[in-house]
Design brief:
Layout lengths: L11 E8 L4 E8 L9 E4 L3 E6 L6 H10 L4 H10 L8 E6 L4 E5 L8 E5 L2 E5 L6 H12 L4 H14 L9 E8 L10 E7 L5 H16 L8 E2 L2 H13 L10 H14 L12 E2 L1 H11 L1
Antiparallel strand pairs: 1-2, 1-8, 2-9, 3-4, 4-5, 5-6, 7-8, 9-10, 11-12
Helix pairs in contact: 1-2, 3-4, 4-5, 6-7, 6-8
Amino acid sequence: MRSTHADPPVATFSIVARDPVAGEWGVAVQSRFLAVGAVVPWARAGVGAIATQSFANTTYGPKGLELLAGGLSAQEVLDRLVAEDPDRDLRQVGIVDAQGRAASFTGAKCMPWAGSVTGDGFACQGNILAGPRVVEAMAETFLSTAGPLSVRLLEALKAGQREGGDTRGKQSAALLVVKEKGGYGGFNDRLIDLRVDDHPDPFAELERLLGLWRLYFEKADPETAVVLDDALWNEIAGHLARLGFLDTAAAGREEVRQALERWIGRENFEERDLTAMGRIDPQVLDILRRQAG
């Protein structure tokens, strides 16, 4: 695609990264571009992650992942992709491989400011940005933030926006994290796949969606759970009776337990079900209390 191409450039800032301890790879991206998550992020567990942007050549995603799976390093894959692309000067791409080696490319004709910062296990890149501080702040924040990869990626993205981000404004964002058998039911590697296609504040919306994902899909921590003693079982029985899950708050303990599990299943809190351990997740308990009034 040359400068006469009818499609707009994917003016974007993104980060690709790896968490070697958790065995996760991910991409976070924001752009003044509709549904950027459908174009830029690509990742495969045990293989790596790729962000392709600026008049994006979307074949870089699947082809790059295949090359990474074949044993090439991030830099070797990057070199091959751009060498085979006659319009390489318009492209921008970031890659992190299975070992955490990172590489980034910014074509000579990418719209300014355009550039990148790479380090051990990550690459930050962007075009049509307010300046180099966008990607520098992303890198600094990623390195200094604790927590799961999803949180570190999102915080890096927000740091880039604080430095001016995409000079055209905000529209869409996406967060993709992969892990072996990390998808629903363990049937694929899509641990987190969240997209904000069109929103006045895609950062806040993406953060809200990540909070919901953590509520519904992160496993409860038994160490922080509340013990189900007699007083709490009686309280829960009253809540479930008000919500129509029990005929009476005076039901037996086994009936209350079964009703609690039915309510948990209806609310999609299976990953936080600790009733078999005689405990209840505090977030689940809070939601039950609020629903019952």
